[in-house]
Amino acid sequence: MSAQTNNWPALLRFDDVDIGRTQVIVHTISEAEVNAFAHLSGDLNPLHMEDAFAECSPFGRRVVHGLLTAALVSAAHTQLTGPGFAYVGQELRFLGPVYIGDTVTINVCVVEKKPAKHILVMDTTVRNQLGRVVLSGLSALKELRFDEAMMARNLAA
Fold first, then answer.
1. pLDDT, tens digit only, all 157 positions of the chain
2. Domains and CATH numbers, the chain
3. Can you give the residue ranges of the MaoC-like domain (predicted)?
4. Residue 107 contacts by C-beta under 8 Å, 6 or more apart in sequence?
5. pTM, whole model, 2 decimals?
6. How far apart are CA 76 and CA 86, in angstroms?
């Protein structure tokens, strides 16, 4: 059973989102998050999980899963658009390692709107605490159509 809050944010519409709209989030990645992500995803690569193994690698220590870093991009999207849009595409380039304890800054910016399909294209950049770009790419989000009468009833319940 899912948690029910009935505290949903207002739904933004495609026309409400302008080119240039930006969202920035800052997050420090913990060992607990890496361990939880590893078990959730099944990616138990010792490069992420074992200090002794990772020390022998070119990275010299454990690295955060690339897709854990990418998941933070999804959080930035949701903060930018609210729940009225869904991920429909992602192109990512992993440009450098992220380590446990790193503080990353995720920046997403609307760079294109495709009115025919109600799709927003966003530029994505993730930097570590040293200012180095560790992830970049483009993402696409599509506006969803909701049954507003049903939503009003559910919110009132």
1. 445 555 556 778 899 999 999 999 999 999 999 999 999 999 999 999 999 999 999 999 999 999 999 999 999 999 999 888 999 999 999 999 999 999 999 999 999 999 999 999 999 999 999 999 999 999 999 999 877 778 777 777 7
2. 14-156 (3.10.129.10)
3. 27-126
4. 22, 23, 24, 76, 124, 125, 126, 127
5. 0.87
6. 13
